[in-house]
Design goal:
The protein is of the alpha/beta class. The protein has 13 helices and 13 strands. The strands form two sheets. Strands 3-2-1-4-5-6-7 form a seven-stranded parallel sheet, with helices on both faces. A six-stranded parallel sheet has the order 10-9-8-11-12-13, with helices on one face. α1 packs across α13 and α3 crosses α4.
Amino acid sequence: MKKVWIDLDNTPHVPFFEPILLELKARGYPVLLTARDAFQVAELAEQKGLPVIKVGRHYGRHKLVKVAGLFYRALQLLPIVLREKPAIGVSHGARSQIILCNLLGIPTILLADYEFAKYPPLMRPTWEMAPEVIPDEALYCPPDHVRKYPGIKEDVYVAKFKPDESIYQALNLKRDRLLATVRPPATEAHYHNPESEALFDCLMNRLTGMPNVQTVLLPRNKKQGELALDTHPEWFKDGKTVIPATAVDGLNLLWFSDFVVSGGGTMNREAAALGVPVYSIFRGKTGAVDTHLEKVGKLIMIKTEEEVMRKIQVAPRDKTFHADLARPAALTSIVAHIEGILNAPGGK
């Protein structure tokens, strides 16, 4: 059986690829799993018992250094790939993997759910797989090398979610307060808009000024967390805001939250998939997936500080769990597409 190489580049990739990896293995395919040691990626993978090989790290926000870091990580991955000889590389935006595969002539599948991410020529995939709501013309690959799946990528792993109340004790959360989960904007991403930071500050000032609210803040990296602690110690006074010391089960935290606010990305869509009220303070280009979620009423976009104060509803929600979140179609479709591409003549 041909070997599949999955490269985990960011934290959300861990829960997303876990069921895909298990399904591929159940079908008899050997899987090579690598992970960048950044954003708690490797830590979370190890918590889940995934057989991951840690390679590379994060190289900061400076563009030239970031690009150099991508090629350096590709070089670090080289001996592993030469030894393991995978037939195809699969990722959700692992540029170092795509660079190396392109140089070695190994076909790649990029799973993408934000059409405005940038992939220069050497980082272009062979195949692209995306949710049905993203139009073909918004993707990099030609239509005959595009595959679609129903729903959103978060449906792949939300289907197996079960709540665990131990999160309260693990994070020292008070049950008599409303729980808000907040993720700051991705300040080091190429699509970052500084307007998001102003909205984030306004939000945190509002929430920490409310005695009945406790906030769990999930920084995107250690530096971002330290900056918040240094510049806004008032946010953390008397336990009003908590930053987890270790990686946490994101879905579980979202489920027990009364509402979620994020600077864009996976957390917004996870909350939407769980049915938790969620607000986006992302001020970059809005992707097709978020536009769809906003249209069907599962996501509210926040564009101004006035909307932070008016639109975000600070209120308790019913947290009774109903085991009706199963959406197997996305997982089944993704794995079937990977298998079909893998076994196509030449995989190209």
